[in-house]
Amino acid sequence: MKYENVGVVGAGVMGVGVAQSLAQTGHTVVLVDVSDTILDRARREIRNGVRALALFDKKSAVDPGKVLERIRFTTDLSQLAEVSFVVENVTEKWAIKQGVYERMDAVCAPPVVFAANTSAIPITRIGSATKRPQQVVGMHFMNPVPMKALVEVIRGFHTSEETIEAAKAFLAEMNKECVVVEDSPGFVSNRVLMLTINEAIFLVQDRVASAPDVDRIFKGCFGHKMGPLETADLIGLDTILYSIEVLYESYNDDKYRPCPLLKKMVDAGLHGRKSGRGFYTYQ
Asked: Which residues are part of the catalytic machinery?
């Protein structure tokens, strides 16, 4: 295995999924976040995630204890000095990401590749926060990460061909395939998906249909496994809002204006599954 020791920065929904997938495929992981409380929650979610995956796929069943043994949970970013590859998953706010990349750039060894697991922030902008923009690549995982076989890989303006090949090799080690696209805010998946979700929220706000009826149309008419509002709850409504705001700022196009109902729900703490309530209520 080429990338045995991997850094995962950010222990939110996506970071937890990436860390779990890496540990399940035999990698040792340094999982970094800002507080022990967040890391304790991440530890519980990974244990539950491994158990849940076993229910869906008996062949993939692994021991949660062994998976957790491969993950070092820490608030100390300097421990990334030991890793050979980093996947960053911090919140979709540029001011926060910029600071994280500047610190990672100072800590990590020169050959280390930085993969940005971002929903919408341009990879070229992220690369500009480092002294190694040729080694910065977008790696847009889908949620839930352990169950999604395909990853959207994004080539920034300075991303080298060697880095693209490294990203492909890294994902192959995780038993995942990828599609490589060029850098553009939202890339392919979220440029379409975020617009769809935002418009679905407008439908609820305008009382055209209830959230369950909007989702039912997409599932029943188009064969989607989840409707747009169920998907929004799974991703996190705060993440949806941040991503829409990035698209609105980047394209200066009113079609990306965030729905007022989305803003209101985020302000109220209704962030979807992770908060227990969004368009639906979760136990």
From this structure: 119, 140, 152, 190
